[in-house]
Amino acid sequence: MDIILKLNEAFESFMSYFNGRKESIAFLGVYFLVLIYIWFQKDKEKIQMLIPMSVFLAATVFNFFVMEYLVIPLGLDTEWYRMYWLVPVIPVTAYGAVELIRMQENKIRKCVIAALCIMCIYLCGQPVWKLGYNLQDNEYKVRDSLIEIVEIIRQDRQGDTARVLFPSEYYIYEVRQYDASILMATGRDTAMSAVRKAQNGEEIIFSENPGERVQQELAAANMCNKRVDPEVLKADLAATGTEYVVCDSKTDSEAWFEEAGCAEIGGSGQYKVLKVVF
Amino acid sequence: MLTALESVGMIILYLFMFLAFGSMLTGHMKKWKFSFSLSVFLGMLFYYSVFQLLAVPVTLLKQPLSLLSALWAATVVIVTVISVIRNRKMWYKRGRELALCSGKQKLLRLVPAVITAAMAVYVSLRQIYYLDAAYYVGNVTTSVFTNTINRYDPYTGNPLEVFAIRYLFSNYNIQDAVVCQITGIHPLIETKTIMAAVVMIVSNIVMWQICGLFYKEDTGSKVMMFVFAAVIQLFSVTYYITYSSSSFLLMRTYEGKNILASILAPGLLLLFGRIVQQPEQKANWIFLFLLSFAGPVLSTSASTLLPVGLSACLLPYMIWKKKARIMIPYLCCILPSIVIFGIYFLSTKGLFYIRAW
């Protein structure tokens, strides 16, 4: 009885891994149907090519015992989904559709079956246009405002590089793709964690590390309109060697940064570019 | 407009370089019908494999990116010139054969070409934001700006104390940096426009070749299968970007992960299929080795995924065929990934590190 309960628990855990990722699982069902068709078709080459491989994958990497007792405990489940790419779902499903059409004797029936296949594909999956399509703003595929902000800093700076504190997550991970002469006070993940916590209204526990803390201070000021002690801010800006700060003008953050020794040199949209002048 | 022309020119140049590299392998083989599309696919693998042989020593010797750019430019020119001299007659002959086929055949072959071009335009003009680009593109921009290889943190721009072993052997982005340094093209254009289109074209080439495994000379069925595959790609996109390689293909096209999902994994099926269909053609084993060697260059995840894929294909095949000697090429094929994964694993355990300065 214990074994059955344990098995059930393992199976449920395995299935929960699939939940939320099931949009394309229907194609996996079609894939298995086509494999059964290939088996009965007795085409030796196709059988050798697809069936042993699929059985091997099902018995190893997609085995729920492997998932439960090896993949999840080792913390590999977040990347395990990539193994799914090894299953040739797309070509095999397409082959199944073509075989269905080829089985028909006249052109009208072929057309009807082709239309039905496309309808099935539509029902099984999710079309790409549901995710929206943003045509590029410019040839660099970054926000126009980012280009303007970087240009203001380029015009103003003395050296080849400038260390800048950015407020929005988009700018944090986009800016160095556009211009590597812009240096950041802290890494992408730390900076974005600070921004997201502030966005979600979570309490910010200020870090001991000045690089992290200064990003948290900017996030608190920009997102939560939370005043940060100008003296602490000044010390952190100095400790991190920050030369420019980009503030959201919709909050009072600009005034607080000015109290900490920054001066406005320009802006783009809702953002103001401040220079650390102390 | 100039950027658009420059991008189209670079896409054509990439495909030509892949063809030149690939034809060095496929050009004069016995019992082998030359194929432009297969040569482009194999050429891409060969191109990145040769690049790896130059990039790893230059990186470990802490030499500037400009040295790698010079070495790579010379290598590409030499290989391309030799390939043109050696293969031009064959290209012409095969081109004539394709040109002389019937009007219906030509029209049929035009369908995959049009679909591929449309998909390439779709991904090239799309503005999309993904966090991982901060590393993939940031590393290219940083390498070009600092004239170094993997010695600065792409997220902050600060110098790294030690090399990130995880990315040391994944030199796909460094190739982009080399091209940007040579041509002066901005890394964002090189990665998100040019490479997006190149990867889309090569992935469709692989799909076309896979269709050929199922319907050898039946062009009509091949085209139909290709069209359905493209339709499925368009309809199997997921929000989670998990159980669908289509999500990567259509949204994160230029990334190494997509190359793994849309070129290397289907490429493994393609080459394994060719081994099954033409067991006498030993070259397919060499190409499979090439895929396993180039895999980790193009994507770090390939060093875990490809050995699993190779095992899934070759171990059951060995048992089916009752040929224990298949074990030798199998072991050779998984070796590059195992070595790279082993090095990475040891480094994560703190057993060694390599100083970046």
Automatic annotation (TrEMBL), chain A:
Alphabetically ordered keywords of this record: Membrane, Transmembrane, Transmembrane helix
Entry's transmembrane regions: 24-40, 49-71, 83-100, 112-129
UniProt entry tagged with the keyword Transmembrane: yes
Protein name: Uncharacterized protein
Organism this protein belongs to: Murimonas intestini
Automatic annotation (TrEMBL), chain B:
Assigned keywords, A-Z: Membrane, Transmembrane, Transmembrane helix
Keyword check for Transmembrane: yes
Source organism per UniProt: Murimonas intestini
Signal peptide residue numbers: none
InterPro entries associated with the record: DUF6077
Top-rank taxon: Bacteria
Pfam family, one: DUF6077
Protein name: Oligosaccharide repeat unit polymerase
TM annotation in the entry: 6-26, 38-61, 67-86, 107-125, 194-216, 223-242, 254-273, 285-306, 326-346
